[in-house]
Amino acid sequence: MDSLQRSHNRSGDEALASSGELLALDLMPLSDHILFIDAEALVLNKPAGLPVDAPRPAKARAKFQQAFEKRIVEKFYVAVIAARICEEEGIIDLPLIKRSSVEAGWRMVADELGLEATTRWRRISIHGDTTLVEFQPLTGRTHQIRVHAREAFGTGILGDRVYGVPRGPMLLHASRLIVPRLDKPAIDVTAPFPAYFAEWRNAA
């Protein structure tokens, strides 16, 4: 799910991003990706790898940017964790910091000297040795959910080649967005699961 955007754009480099998702996009009208639209905002269920232009209406852009900065926007994600999780829910509170090395490049790691990072989670369902989990980040650190998943559950997200288990596409999906608005009803949208979630698509 993309943040609030007013337009989209295609580039030649997209062919390198995710050919399967881009092919699906080519076969689907743009209107089928629209989750919400009014005079102020357009919310798209944006496929991974599709670039977008920066929002153009300055007043609306500033308004929504402030909402994100004040942490009043609620964001929910679902991910498949490579482990059976017995607990039903919890809160992960681990500060994160960026670390770099010549061998591995950069990545985010848990460190008490890092920036505050808090994620609420709840178990949705278990399938074999994997678990579908909903995450609600209460802060917005880079790679927060991916790092927190690994640290909290002893393993990471399926398909995550940096923090999790590198097998197939990364099974992390932006599922719901709630944006309060003072003068209008809140924007509350839910994005359907991508096709590559396979048997998990009906689990939530």
Can you characterise this structure?
This protein has 204 residues and is an alpha+beta fold. It folds into two domains: 1-70, no CATH class; 73-204, Pseudouridine synthase. It is built from three helices and ten strands; from the N terminus they run αββαββββββαββ. The protein has helices spanning 19-27, 58-69, 144-153; strands spanning 34-37, 42-44, 74-81, 89-93, 96-101, 105-110, 118-127, 130-137, 172-179, 187-190. The strands form three sheets. Strands 4-7-8-3-9-10 form a six-stranded antiparallel beta sheet. It has a two-stranded antiparallel ribbon with strand order 1-2. Strands 5-6 form a two-stranded antiparallel ribbon. β5 and β6 form a beta hairpin. The protein is globular. The two termini are 17 Å apart. 26% of the residues are buried. Mean pLDDT is 84; it is low at 2-26.
Q: How many E-type strands? A: 10
**Overall form:** globular
**Portion in strands:** 25-35%
The tally of helices reads 3
CATH superfamily caption of the largest domain: Pseudouridine synthase
Average pLDDT reading: 84
What strand line-up does the widest sheet have? 4-7-8-3-9-10
Unreliable runs: 2-26
Class based on secondary structure composition and strand pairing: alpha+beta
| CA(first)-CA(last) distance | 17 Å
Top CATH class of the largest domain: Alpha Beta
Largest sheet: 6 strands, antiparallel
What are the secondary-structure elements, in order, as H or E?
HEEHEEEEEEHEE
Helix content: 10-25%
